[in-house]
Amino acid sequence: MGTQAYVSAASGLSTTILLERAADGDQLAWGQLIDDYDRLVRSVAGSFRLQAADVSDVAQTTWLRLVQKLHTIRDPERLAGWLAVTATRESWALLRRAARHAPMVEDRPDPDPAVDPEATVATGDAARDLWATVAELPPRQQRLLIALFRDELDSYNEVAATCAMPIGSIGPTRARALSQLQRKLADRDLGPADL
């Protein structure tokens, strides 16, 4: 089964064409790429529980990395995955820098015996694996899953407005997205027992 080209709903252009035009300095193409993918970039950074300003920093740095690597993107139609991986790396880098500069605290409270540190780390790793896999889905499905499960929008009207899709399309699109996500996770041995 071949890769299906993502076409921006707003511009009607494929990611490949948008990237080519952006490389030629077309600011409208850059704007459309950001409109199409910034929510994904910010949701990946948000999965690290960063403060809003840090999420913005990660997003800005991720877009800067795209500018720097624009001519080396081998498969433009997989831009979503590239952006998700880059946002993950930038989030880790930000956390490492923050840890290096954090002041040493002498009086630390006793750890809560009810909190299992290994389980906490495993849960965080599983969430990052899950959202990185979501980033490989077609952008329309990504936006829908983010709206439904990360942003936890209250109504289908909000979801439809956020995702620019008719309410009647939400259920079938969600079913296809979850089915595709389940297959991708199973291919990576990240089934329900691992998440």
Automatic annotation (TrEMBL):
Give the UniProt record's GO annotations in the biological process aspect: DNA-templated transcription initiation
Q: Where is the signal peptide?
A: none
Give a Pfam family name: Sigma70_r2
Keyword hit for Nucleotide-binding: no
Supply the alphabetized keyword list: DNA-binding, Sigma factor, Transcription, Transcription regulation
Q: Does the keyword Ligase apply?
A: no
Q: Which InterPro entries match?
A: RNA_pol_sigma-70-like, RNA_pol_sigma-70_dom, RNA_pol_sigma70_r2, RNA_pol_sigma_r2, RNA_pol_sigma_r3/r4-like, WH-like_DNA-bd_sf
Q: Which GO terms describe its molecular function?
A: DNA binding; sigma factor activity
User: Where does the RNA polymerase sigma-70 region domain lie?
Assistant: 33-100
Family to which the UniProt record says this protein belongs: Belongs to the sigma-70 factor family. ECF subfamily.
Protein name, as recorded: RNA polymerase sigma factor, sigma-70 family
